[in-house]
Amino acid sequence: MDGQPAKYFVRREDGRLRCTLCPRGCTLRDGQAGLCAVRRNQGGTMVLSTYGQSTGFCIDPIEKKPLNHFYPGTSVLSFGTAGCNLCCRFCQNWKLSTARPEELRSERATAQQIAKRAKDLGCTSVAYTYNDPVVFFEYAVDTARACREQGIKNVAVTAGYLSPPAAEEFFACMDAANVDLKAFSDTFYQRMCSARLQPVLDTLLYLRQSTSVWLELTTLLIPGLNDDPAELAAMTQWIVAKLGPETPLHLSAFHPDHRLLDVRPTSTEDLKKARTIAKRSGLVHVYTGNVHDPKGSSTYCAACKNLLIERDWYQLGRYDLVEGNRCGKCGAVCAGHFDEAPGSWGARRRPVSV
Q: Given this model, what pLDDT does residue 101 score?
């Protein structure tokens, strides 16, 4: 069999398979792959063609995922595969997300090899990223379970576009997630991503209400498309009401790429305006990304506004959390997961082999 047997599908009476991994529900005849290009019907069985095949491994700072409240300063072994179940016109990593498996040079590695390598390299966590780990579900879950056995934590960087049964199994293996909330408009999701908004909101609600997974959000701010002040206010008010005011939100700068080359880049001023809207809605931890903005990248106490974690790009400076998660000035608890002291990985990015 060319590929690993995959989960989440139903057989139809006409012999086709309907994938139930994500809300897209692709119906596949024998030999046909879904929109993701990596899950296909092979002789009446669903297979994942990228199982055990990564497009590369790299040690990153955890802040690059981005996660600012999950063991700051530590290193994370990151990897992904080919394919995606969304079709974002603005994808900043489209060379991987739009590729078919045979189009990319891959490095073979078992789940156990990845977990052992992460431990040997001193990484605190492994991140399933670069493309959406939903499409390499079985590979990600098996690797996450192997990492748990080695004491390594697991991080999902995802658009959150998966079915409720798959979400339950997937996030049971994860310790933290950064979910792309691409906009707060179903029209945007349909036109720009060939997807829908509600399944993503359902995933976010599930994460908050039914799991202990640490959650941070990212919105790539695209001028004229998802940066309307009223929409940003509605989105951030929803986050406060449904996910909590201390849910970190990363507002990231767009640059023209893939199929959206006629829109200007997001300016630092654009991000600062959006950050102001989010703060007015009641969000405590709002960050600016993909621009040099040390103030907008740093963490402040929700109670007394003391500078808790200073960041310059991915490099940590002043660190004033004591007893793990308490403000060094007023003693208030900062939401997140923290060690007694920050990690010392810094801003390095180191490609590695497994």
A: 73
Same domain, 304 and 246: no
Contact 126, 76 (CB under 8 A): yes
Rounded to two decimals, the pTM is: 0.96
The answer to whether the peptide bond before residue 66 is cis (omega within 30 degrees of 0) is yes
Q: 36 in a domain, yes or no?
A: yes
In a shared domain, residues 259 and 196:
yes
Evaluate whether residue 59 is within a structural domain: yes
* Cα→Cα distances 81→98, 102, 227, 354, Å: 11, 11, 30, 14
Q: In a 3-state reduction of DSSP, which class is residue 63? A: helix
Please give the pLDDT value at position 348: 94
User: Hey, how many other C-beta atoms are within 10 angstroms of the C-beta on 333?
Assistant: 15
Which pair of structure tokens corresponds to residue 133? 């780990």
CA–CA separation, 299 vs 177, rounded Å? Answer: 18
What residue ranges of the chain have pLDDT lower than 50? Answer: none
- Do residues 63 and 146 share a domain? yes
200 and 182 fall within a common domain: yes
Identify whether residues 284 and 172 lie together within a single domain. Answer: yes
Domain that holds residue 112: 53-297
* 3-class SS string, 261-320: CCCCCCCHHHHHHHHHHHHHHCCCCEEEECCCCHHHHCEECCCCCCEEEEEECCEEEEEC
- What six digits make up the tokens of 106? 């891959």
Do 257 and 308 belong to one domain?
A: no
Whether residues 87 and 21 share a domain: the answer is no
CA separation, residue 18 to residues 15, 45, 213 (Å): 10, 11, 29
Calpha distance 282→244 (Å, rounded): 9
In the structure encoding, which two tokens stand for residue 155, read together?
Answer: 């991080």
**24 part of a folded domain:** yes
Question: Would you say residue 113 lies in a domain?
Answer: yes
C-alpha angle 9-14-17 in degrees, rounded to nearest 5: 15
Per residue in 38-49, pLDDT (tens digit) is 999 999 999 999
pLDDT of residue 217: 98
pLDDT of residue 159: 98
User: Which two three-digit tokens encode residue 234?
Assistant: 């509605």
